[in-house]
């Protein structure tokens, strides 16, 4: 078994999928000869040719619109939006076309496309390279939304997404590309080569979309997170010494509600962590579900830790970023409530 970064795991997933199915095609801005801005597609064009891995104009709406047409024709496009911040020109295609093809055709057509996009901050990308738009997709019936937190999951989930008959938004936390960043920006980052979840099989495997994973067992409070915030939550639990159970959602839509209910019913407390802005963030949906399904088990109010309700500020990167200190305070507060 190889040790891979998340970049290498994502690349391996596309390589395996393209090798198994000639209908799988990869395209986007700079993904061909250059190998993508983060090098996630490096070598795929050389291996599979320019008809299966190719560059596009700088036109996100055109990228997704083309993918939808290809999917209706029978291909399985896996396209890259260079940063999640750039997906807004394609939002109409995603919500009005891709998400509705199965419904509007009464099942005669499906739309097996994957839209990969690096998401989140922590790299000093500022307001146009740091956004976390996952909640904009979870509100749309017909889309699936996946956010892996490690290389092993990234490969297995991406293969599952490529094989899925419906459109999947695959958000890749860019701060995790090279290591499990826990929010302690003042410390050296541990590479994936020294982390157990950096062990990634070279060959085929898949992980079912819609299944969460418990990353840390605990009995005092449930912390629900996804993407980079999983590692921040784990660090906060260690820093505070609180017996927290940390759930990695992995998939936001479909959501593993059973895993959430089981954990919160056991602990009686819940903290939800995400990097996106607080207002109308996906944490609000989780909080409502916890209140609806776990009300009589709760010993304290459900708390959320999230980004500010502002554009991502370049100058205050680590104040905006929900780090382990902020999550730790929430854990302490919910335990004292």
The tally of beta strands, per DSSP, is: 14
CATH class of the largest domain: Alpha Beta
Number of helices: 12
Q: Report the β-strand fraction as a percent range.
A: 15-25%
Radius of gyration: 19 Å
Could you describe the largest sheet, including whether it forms a barrel? 7 strands, mixed
What is the multimeric organization of the chains shown?
A: single chain
Q: What gap, in angstroms, lies between the N and C termini?
A: 46 Å
User: Secondary-structure element order, as H and E?
Assistant: EHEHEHEHHEHEHEEEEHEEHEHEHH
CATH fold field value of the largest domain: Rossmann fold
So what's the overall shape? globular
Number of domains: 2
CATH architecture of the largest domain: 3-Layer(aba) Sandwich
Low-confidence residue ranges: none
Strand order of the largest sheet: 3-2-4-5-7-6-12
Give a quick summary of the entry.
By secondary structure, the chain is an alpha/beta fold.
Detailed description of the structure:
- The chain has 337 residues and is of the alpha/beta class.
- The protein has 2 domains: 199 residues, Thiamin diphosphate (ThDP)-binding fold, Pyr/PP domains (Rossmann fold), CATH 3.40.50.970; 124 residues, Rossmann fold, CATH 3.40.50.920.
- It contains 12 helices and 14 strands.
- The strands form 3 sheets. Strands 3-2-4-5-7-6-12 form a 7-stranded mixed sheet, with helices on both faces. It has a 5-stranded mixed sheet with strand order 9-11-10-13-14, sandwiched between helices. A two-stranded antiparallel sheet has the order 1-8.
- Helix 3 packs parallel to helix 4.
- The longest helix has 15 residues.
- It is globular.
- The relative contact order is 0.12.
- Keywords: Oxidoreductase.
- This is 3-methyl-2-oxobutanoate dehydrogenase (2-methylpropanoyl-transferring).
- Its EC number is 1.2.4.4.
């Amino acid at each position: 078994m190889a040790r891979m970064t998340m970049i290498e795991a994502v690349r391996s997933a596309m390589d395996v999928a393209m090798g198994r199915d000639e209908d799988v095609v990869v395209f986007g801005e700079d993904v061909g000869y250059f190998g993508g801005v983060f090098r996630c597609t490096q070598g795929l064009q050389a291996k599979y040719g320019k008809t299966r891995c190719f560059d596009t104009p700088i036109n996100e709406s055109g990228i997704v619109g083309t993918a939808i047409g290809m999917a209706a024709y029978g291909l399985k496009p896996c396209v890259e939006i260079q940063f999640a911040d750039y997906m807004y020109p394609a939002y109409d295609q995603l919500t009005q076309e891709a998400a509705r093809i199965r419904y509007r055709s009464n099942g005669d057509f499906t739309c097996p496309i994957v839209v990969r996009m690096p998401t989140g901050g922590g790299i000093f990308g500022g307001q146009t390279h740091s956004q976390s738009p996952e909640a904009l997709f979870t509100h749309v019936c017909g889309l699936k939304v996946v956010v892996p937190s490690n290389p092993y999951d990234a490969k297995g989930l991406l293969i599952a997404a490529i094989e899925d008959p419906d459109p999947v938004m695959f958000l890749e936390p860019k701060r995790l590309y090279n290591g499990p960043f826990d929010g302690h920006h003042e410390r050296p980052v541990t590479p994936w080569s020294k982390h157990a979840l950096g062990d990634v099989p070279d060959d085929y495997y898949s992980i079912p979309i819609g299944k969460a994973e418990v990353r840390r067992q605990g009995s005092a409070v449930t912390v629900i997170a996804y993407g980079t915030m999983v590692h921040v939550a784990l660090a906060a639990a260690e820093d505070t010494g609180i017996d927290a159970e940390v759930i990695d959602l992995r998939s936001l839509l479909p959501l593993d509600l059973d895993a959430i209910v089981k954990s919160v019913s056991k602990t009686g407390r819940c903290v939800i962590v995400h990097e996106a802005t607080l207002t109308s963030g996906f944490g609000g949906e989780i909080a409502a579900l916890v209140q609806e399904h776990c009300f009589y088990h709760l010993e304290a109010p459900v708390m959320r830790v999230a980004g500010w309700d502002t554009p991502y500020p370049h100058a205050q990167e680590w104040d905006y970023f929900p780090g382990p200190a902020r999550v730790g305070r929430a854990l302490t507060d919910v335990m004292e409530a």
